[in-house]
Give the backbone structure.
Amino acid sequence: MMTERKLLILEPIQEKHLEEIKKTVKDSFIIKQLKQLPNSCSREELKAELKDAEIVIGQPPLDLLQNPEVNCPKLKLIQMTWAGTDIYTRSELDFPKDRIVLANASGAFGMVMSQFALGMILSVMFNFKDYHIQQQNIIWEKKGPVKSLDKAKVLIFGAGDIGSAIAKRLTGFDAYCIGVCRNTDKPRAYFNELCSLEDAQRYLPDADVVIGCIPNTFETEKYMNYERLKSMKEDAIIVNVGRGNFIDCMALDELLRNGHLFGAALDVTDPEPLPKDHPLWSNPKCMITPHTSGTTFGHLDATEDLLCEIVCDNLSRYCKGEEIINRVYKG
């Protein structure tokens, strides 16, 4: 008698996507959906399900993966539903990469996050936040100078799926896009120029807009410190939709209040969320949103559709013994 193979889903995947997953794995796996949401399942219930799982779709806690022989002896593949892998790659605990393949969901979020980033830039450029506040207080008053993206020089930290999607949308404004990435020899569509993180600093004084959508690494942590923020144009704009610790938030607040920089828009912060007494909350030149640019489930069907394509592609590859895409630790 053949041993049952289990695929464990830890996300509120829609029924139509669940059907696609079932079609992909056919009869090879029994599928169990255990929504790992606040108060939706107990830790003991999750541990019990992990013991028999060969594949997990979602983000099981790293501490439960530390002793694979006990907690997840059959686990071979974790297909994340996030693009960011910090919970595994930046943890004090080691991910058991010798036994478990880890793949992220890069490619699912460029479409929505690029639109979000463009919305943030235009909101700052045209003072939309201030006009919303004025509307609440029934005030009819022009707020003064605005800026334009037309032929703007934009420095984008991160030239992968998200950064490339942002650059693509900026081409409609004839903006000049410079992408910051590790491999500057790799062709990347929609960028006029590429540079390494080591060389990026020399582009800061000429950039009209700086966008952070770069992965979290030791090299990028607090990269935009006081000195680098100060080196930007006085009327430049900075936007962050990547990782909160890319920007020193206290330094940003100080420079904004001193009149350096036209404005800022942050979808991610450090720490996150910001403490209630953090000065950026009350900074009139900063717009803050609650890490919502790349939210997956229950926000935009198109994002969930893209995620389903990535998941099913990797499930098909796994069943056929082929190379997994978006693999985090290379074998």
Q: What stands out?
A: Residues 253 and 279 are 7 Å apart (CA to CA). The mean pLDDT is 95. The first strand starts at residue 6 and ends at 9.
